[in-house]
Specification:
34% of the residues lie in helices and 16% in strands. It is α/β, with parallel strands linked by helices and 277 residues long. Helix 6 links the parallel strand 8 and strand 9. The radius of gyration is 22 Å and the shape is globular.
């Protein structure tokens, strides 16, 4: 591609009228997708730099949220991931208005069938987003399969909690996933939970906090109800950094905070130390 073609111009000659007797040069437009704006420091960053840098802002070290498949690429050995239970869908059990259209739009946008990807690789399982009955079912199936094959299981949690559009169908997944993990634990198998930003609601109240080892990414929001809800309920100001990964580590809820570039190495070491015959 020629350098001259990298920017679109809004005027053929590169000038635009600013009023009688005045002219100004047109500011070139940046091609869509070339730059990404950091939601913390507001800097404009090259998207390619973000992708190559573990989806971390090079200016302020803010952690961007990561698509499930990119997460797998960062952690699993290349070419070893085998996806499980692709194609499961929940329908619309409560006949919630607009729910099916919303799900269909998100499927097209993300390229995923549901808010969870499960599977087998040299090093793990990966689950993200709001929990409906399919998310709970896929997690349960993954845990049960890992139990039967005596495999460790790694869950990456990134969720707003249980999905209100599925009501009790969603809430019951808390008990179902927890029961499956108890059987996995009783079989002597390892479960590593990795908490990312955000991990909240019913996901926090179930499988996310049941790991034999619980890791977290720096600065991740982790909790059941959000800080604003808690402050409104108790009528008190919460401590600085409340519900962030560092606060939870200090208070014993998390075993270790691991920077994203070190995550693959850390998980590999943990799995190797707990290897079963």
């Amino acid at each position: 591609m020629k350098l001259s073609n990298m920017f679109k111009k809004t005027s053929r000659r590169g000038y635009i009228s600013l009023g009688e007797g005045k002219a100004g040069r047109v500011t070139p437009e940046v091609p869509e997708g070339l730059l990404k704006k950091c939601n913390v420091c507001k800097s404009a960053i090259l998207t390619e730099d973000v992708k190559n840098g573990y989806y971390i802002c090079p200016k302020c070290q803010n952690y961007f949220r990561v698509h499930a498949m990119h997460r797998i690429e960062m952690v699993a050995d290349a070419g070893t991931f085998e996806e499980w239970d692709r194609g499961l869908t929940s329908g619309n059990p409560l006949h919630y208005k607009g729910y099916e259209e919303k799900v269909e739009a998100l499927q097209k946008k993300t390229g995923l069938d549901e808010a969870v990807v499960t599977g087998k690789a040299k090093i793990g399982r990966f689950m993200m987003a709001s929990m409906g009955k399919v998310v709970g079912e896929k997690i349960t199936r993954a845990v049960e399969k890992a139990t039967s094959e005596r495999l460790p299981i790694i869950i990456f949690a990134c969720s707003g909690g249980a999905r209100m559009q599925e009501g009790i169908h969603s809430l019951m997944q808390m008990a179902k996933t927890s029961a499956a993990l108890k059987r996995h634990h009783d079989a002597g198998c390892l479960y590593v939970s990795v908490l990312t930003d955000p991990t909240t609601g019913g996901v926090t109240a179930s499988f996310a906090m049941l790991g034999d080892i619980i890791l977290a990414e720096p600065g991740a929001l982790i909790g059941f109800a959000g800080p604003r809800v808690i402050e409104q309920t108790i009528g008190q100001k919460l401590p600085k950094g409340f519900q962030r990964a560092e606060f939870l580590l200090e208070h014993g809820f998390v075993d270790q905070i691991v920077e994203r570039p070190r995550l693959r190495e850390t998980l590999s070491e943990i799995v190797a130390m707990h290897k079963t015959e």
